[in-house]
Amino acid sequence: MRDPAYLDSLPIHGGFRLRGVQMSRLETFADAAFAFALTLLVISFDTIPSSYAELIHALKSVPAFAASFAIVVMLWVGHRTWSKRYGLDDATSTILTMLLVFIIMVYVYPLRAMMAAFLSAFTGGWVPTELEFDSYSQIRGMFLVYGVGWLTVNGTLALLNGHALRRADSLGLNAVERFDTRTELQAWSLVGLFGAFSMAIALAVPDQRLGLAGHVYFGLMVVMPLHGRWRGRKRQSIGSP
Q1: Are 20 and 27 in contact (CB under 8 A)?
Q2: Cα separation, 187 vs 113, whole angstroms
Q3: Sign of the torsion angle spanned by Cα atoms 49, 53, 56, 58
Q4: Which of 49, 113, 137, 238 has the most CB atoms around it within 10 Å of its CB?
C-alpha cells in the first residue's frame, strides 16, 4: 500500500492521481516505437512522384493515411494514459508493453492497406488501393488478418489495465480510480471484440455479404458513446477521489 501522504501529493488529471508523471524507460521505448510505426504508415511509396499526375495520385492516399494515423494515435493515447495513471514498470507491464509494440509493428501495414481498400470502395476508386484481390477467399482472409490485429492490439491494452486493477491495493487506488481502471478495461475489451465479430462474420456469411465484416466496425460509433455515457453517470454516483 502506498503512503497516503505520497498519494495526496500526486498531481490529479480527470479525478485520477497520476503515479507515472516521470517518464520511465518503458514508456520512452513505447513512445519511440509508436513514432516509428507512424513513419511506416508514410514510407510506403516505391518512388518519389516525378510528375504532377503522380503527385496527385500520391496525395489521394492521404485519407487512408489519416484514418490509419488516427487509429495508431488512439492506441498510443491509451498506453500513455495507462503509463501516467499507474507508473508501473514491473515484469508483467514490460512483457505486455513489448507485446503491444510488436503487434503495432506487424499490424501497421494491414491497417493502412485495409483503410485504403475501404476508402477506395467507399469513394468509387478515387482513393487508390494498395491491394488487389483475385477471389472472395482472399478478401475473407484480409478481414481475418485485420480482425486478429484489431482484437490483439486492443486486447493487450485491456490486459494492461487488468494488471493495474490487480495491483490496486499496492498502488493505493481509491474507489473512483478502481472504477476508472475497471471500466477502462471494459472499454478496450469492447473495442477489441469488434475484431472478433468481424472475423466471425467473415467466416460465416456468403461471398456476396462479405462487406458486412467491415461494416461491423461502424458499430463502435454506437456502442462506445453509450458505454461512455453509462460510465460517466456511474462515476458521478461513486463520488470524488
Answers
A1: yes
A2: 26
A3: negative
A4: 113
d(CA 18, CA 171): 11
**What single DSSP character describes residue 16?**
E
* Identity of residue 142: M
- In this predicted structure, which of 10-14, 41-45, 98-102, 166-170 has the lowest mean pLDDT? 41-45
Tell me the sheet residues that pair with 147. Answer: none
The closest of 65, 80, 85 to 33, measured between CA atoms, is 80
Could you report the per-residue pLDDT of 71-92, keeping only the tens digit for each? 999 999 999 999 999 999 899 9
Cell 469513394 found at? 123
Assigned C-alpha cell, 100: 503491444
The strand pairing partners of 12, in sequence order, are: 17
CA distances for 101 relative to 33, 73, 91, 107, 188, angstroms: 6, 13, 15, 10, 16
- Give pLDDT tens digits for 9-42: 888 888 899 998 887 888 889 999 999 888 888 7
Say whether pLDDT at 69 is over 50. Answer: yes
Pair 131, 142: CB distance under 8 Å: yes
**Beta carbons of 190 and 224 less than 8 angstroms apart:** yes
Cβ of 22: how many Cβ atoms within 10 Å?
9
pTM for the full model?
A: 0.91
Phi, psi (deg, nearest 5) at residue 186: -60, -45
Q: Residues 146, 154: contact at Cβ < 8 Å?
A: no
pLDDT digits (tens, 9 = 90+) for 201-238: 999 999 989 989 999 999 999 999 999 999 999 998 88
